[in-house]
Write a structure and sequence with these properties.
With 253 residues, the chain is α/β, with parallel strands linked by helices. The chain has nine helices and seven strands.
């Protein structure tokens, strides 16, 4: 029920939804003062949420700081959170979204000798059609193609959200890798919530953020030009912030 509700709430977490609702209200509300209020609110929200400088500055503040691979100490197990593939056609290959860095950077860590074992955590992120390949199996296929031995990969195939990632992974790590050093690999914007979930399960993990949305590039004039990408960044941030609030209320972190 919690999983389905989280999907349904995604609509209200999109700034574009707020903007559309404001303009729709300004069209159909009868009182002139209220019509003007909603129209002005829609314009202000549109200006703010499509401004790249505002969105990128906020995302940069929120993302966990990057870590150089060369500066990283060796860890026994890298815990890789899934949620980065798509159920697209044709089904004879794995289709990734931007979060593919979770897989690619883990492969680099293994090749660099920074991790000895890999635990991939994730089942199906779909509300319907959950019979397709689970996320962790898709990530495993890519790692095998890159030359990572199957013997160093463990799958956790039941999780559908970050709380379950931590809960189910903790069982495996406690049974098979007790007392060892763990490295958590997930997107930089998602790391704070993920760390909180794993610590709640009693696991001490080192953060290795990947999949960054911001860079160290200096400010450019293009940052003032409205863009759809700015809206997308806000959508990611609002979803993550809402997730943290809900997880705190439910005791998941």
């Amino acid at each position: 029920m919690f999983f389905i509700a989280s999907k349904l709430l995604s609509f209200i977490l999109k700034p574009l939804s707020w903007i559309i609702l404001c303009f729709v209200a300004s069209l159909f509300w009868k009182r002139v003062e209220i019509k003007k209020f909603f129209f002005r609110a829609g314009v202000v929200l549109l200006i703010i949420f499509t401004n790249p400088w505002i969105s990128e500055t906020t995302m940069h503040w929120w993302e966990t700081d990057p870590i150089l691979i060369s500066s990283l100490k060796t860890h026994d197990v890298a815990i890789v959170l899934s949620g980065v593939t798509n159920d697209y056609y044709p089904h004879d290959r794995v289709h990734y979204n931007k979060g593919a860095d979770r897989v690619l950077h883990t492969i680099q860590l293994y090749k660099a000798g920074k991790i000895d074992h890999i635990l991939i955590s994730g089942g199906s992120g779909l509300v319907m059609n959950t019979n397709h390949d689970v996320e962790s199996e898709n990530l495993r296929k890519t790692m095998l193609l890159a030359g990572v031995p199957d013997s160093v990969i463990t799958l956790e195939t039941k999780s559908r959200n970050t709380h379950e990632n931590a809960q189910n992974s903790a069982r495996i790590l406690t049974q098979k890798f007790s007392g060892q050093k763990f490295l958590l690999v997930t997107s930089a914007f998602h790391m704070k919530r993920a760390i909180g979930c794993f610590e709640k399960e009693g696991l001490k993990v080192k953060a290795f953020p990947v999949d960054f949305y911001t860079t160290e590039e200096p400010f450019e004039i293009d940052a003032l030009v409205p863009s759809i990408e700015a809206l997308q960044l806000w959508q990611i941030l609002f979803k993550e912030w809402f997730g943290i609030i809900v997880y705190k209320i439910t005791g998941y972190i």
